[in-house]
Design goal:
The chain has six helices and ten strands. The chain is of the alpha/beta class.
Length: 181
């Protein structure tokens, strides 16, 4: 399985104790590396998505049964969202599952970015990483802000190459999306 959100030691422990191999990459933190910035002829700054993917998510095709995407797409630079989803499609096995969370429009621009911890077979804890007061001296996480709110149609288009998609409305203005490769 692949966990591409904020790294969680409890997730690694939870799944490895059950005999699963878990790979973990905090793609949002990695994407904030200033060396990935490129400028076009108009001076507009964006992230070099080709270099980003060459250096991250460099796994063999059809390698993963399960991907935890968490709420990454809502916070990731626009230039990376579609390429990352396309790469996830290629590194997932046919029939593999992807779990993603998306904010609803009621979340507001100050919606917290979470680290998710699987703490039981039916329990998930959420820890806000960019809530007020969460970034001060001694905190390594940069203050990520909500970049966009995807509606259902946008999410369906984002995962259009996948076999199926199911939506579940959760609490805290979060929509759970389960996608099958």
């Amino acid at each position: 399985m692949l966990d591409i959100g904020a790294t969680s030691a409890s997730n690694i422990r939870f799944f490895t104790e059950r005999g699963h191999r878990i790979y973990s990459q905090d793609l949002l933190e990695i994407s904030s590396d200033p060396s990935l910035a490129i400028h076009d002829e108009h001076g507009t700054t964006s992230i070099d998505s080709k270099r980003f993917l060459d250096e991250n998510l460099a796994y063999p095709n059809a390698h993963f049964d399960l991907v935890f995407c968490w709420n990454l797409a809502d916070y990731m630079d626009e230039n990376l969202v579609k390429p990352v989803v396309a790469r996830l499609w290629s590194v997932m096995k046919p029939g593999g599952l992807l779990l993603a969370f998306f904010h609803t429009r009621e979340a507001g621009p100050d919606a917290p970015y979470y680290r998710y911890h699987v703490t039981g077979t039916d329990t998930l804890e959420m820890h806000a990483l960019n809530a007020k007061g969460a970034h001060g001296k001694g905190h390594a996480n940069p203050p990520f802000t909500l970049q966009r709110v995807f509606n259902n149609r946008h999410i369906e288009n984002l995962f259009r190459d996948f076999a199926s998609i199911k939506f579940f409305l959760s609490r805290d203005n979060i929509r759970e999306v389960l996608v099958v490769r």
